[in-house]
Amino acid sequence: MSLSLTRLLQLASPALPVGAYTYSQGLEWAVESGTVRDEATALGWIGDLLEWNLGRFEAPLLVRMLAACRKGDGALLIELNERFLSSRETAELRAETLQMGYSMTRLLGELGDFPADALAALRALDAPGFPAAWASAAAAWDVDAAAALTAYLWSWAENQVMAALKAGPLGQAAGQRVLLALGGRIPAIVERALVLDEADFSNFAPAFAIACSRHETQYSRLFRS
After folding, report:
1. 59 found inside a domain
2. How many domains does one find in the chain?
3. Distance (Å, rounded) from C-alpha 122 to C-alpha 136?
4. Is 203 within the bounds of a domain?
């Protein structure tokens, strides 16, 4: 057993105080519109985003952020962070990652044993998004890239399933079945993201962008995005 494993479990924990539980990333509107209404449609929605959105853009971008942090390449981290922020299609999505990135950066500074040089590089970003802050922590704690990416995607999937439970269409057992199915897909997604050529990056998911846009004017809602 290694210290990096316990640090990774801490990073992936729902107890991480960055406010992830307050966001649904458009899923709440998908439930409101009837697109997500049961176990099968929840798995379809979350699984497609995992495969075609996160898996082909955010995941390989996180791999490069990890590498930049390990090498101490602050300029590259700034470039990758800006690229991620520019990919956020709506005001809510951008506000979400900036809030979580700010909270993560502040948390790392308050832990007391986070490397000073890693914290300084992170604070050099004008507006750190959550992936950049998370990658900085994983790199500083010497977490293997494949393990870090697996945990990052699992944490996202878990939060999406919890949002579906809170919004109504899923029960606890159904939620666990969805997580079981999603977890089975993650290893292959990680394997591809680790070697994906930059020319093949893509986060093209128009229904997701529409859902996030519609959520901004949704009349009654639980989540901030």
Report:
1. yes
2. 1
3. 7
4. yes
Q: What CATH number does the domain containing 143 carry?
A: 1.10.4190.10
Q: Record the tokens describing residue 27, joined without a space.
A: 């899923």
**Could you tell me if residue 148 is inside a domain?**
yes
Structure tokens at 128: 């750190």
Helix (H, G, I), strand (E, B), or coil: what is residue 47? helix
**CA 139 – CA 224 distance, rounded (Å):** 29
Mean pLDDT by 10 residues, the chain (225 residues): 90 95 96 96 97 97 98 96 96 97 97 92 95 97 97 98 91 96 98 97 94 91 89
Q: At what angle do helices 74-86 and 59-71 cross, to 10 degrees?
A: 160
**Which pLDDT score is estimated for 63?**
98
Note the pLDDT of residue 59.
Answer: 98
What predicted TM-score, i.e. pTM, was given to this entire model?
0.96
Residue 225 inside a domain? The answer is no
Q: How far apart (Å, rounded) are the C-alpha atoms in residues 206 and 208?
A: 5
To which H or E segment does residue 19 belong? Answer: none
Q: Is the dihedral of CA 182, 159, 191, 200 positive or negative?
A: positive
Owning domain of residue 106: 23-215
